[in-house]
Design goal:
Helix 1 crosses helix 3. The protein is mainly α and 135 residues long. It has a two-stranded antiparallel ribbon with strand order 1-2. The protein is built from 3 helices and 2 strands.
Length: 135
């Protein structure tokens, strides 16, 4: 299962809206592994009332570190340098670029890494046949 690419315009809209708030806004990447509980349909149907089966499985949630401007800038630069997509830009130029592209880039990267952790956890629980107690 893959994480869908983030729409940078949609993500950035939330960041821009937060600047209009009279109160501090905090952003945290959130990953929720729920596909085993309610898998997506095999095909997209336009009619109402499609039949969906729900399984009784654990749901895994991962709250990541806060997406502060400092963290976004430094991680954007570090990841771009590491993955070879810095396009010959200097660290200073990348920091400037982080102001426009960094928020979505870092958030998407965090969520993808968190899903890898959650998928691994799910596999371990499945292999160990850990019973989950419901109260």
């Amino acid at each position: 299962m893959a994480v869908a690419p983030f729409d940078s315009r949609a993500v950035d809209m939330f960041r821009v809206l937060s600047t209009k708030s009279q109160h501090p806004t905090h952003f945290f990447p959130l990953s929720m592994l729920t596909a085993q509980v309610l898998p997506p349909p095999a095909k997209v149907a336009m009619e109402v009332g499609e039949r969906r089966l729900v399984a009784r499985r654990p749901v895994h949630v991962y709250f990541g570190d806060e997406l502060t401007p400092e963290r976004v800038g430094s991680e954007f630069v570090a990841r771009k340098m590491k993955d070879g997509t810095a396009e010959g830009l200097t660290e200073e130029e990348l920091m400037k670029k982080a102001g426009k592209e960094g928020f979505t880039y870092v958030a998407e990267g965090d969520v993808k890494r968190h899903y890898d952790v959650l998928m691994g956890l799910d596999l371990v629980l499945e292999e160990e046949e850990v019973s989950v107690q419901y109260h």
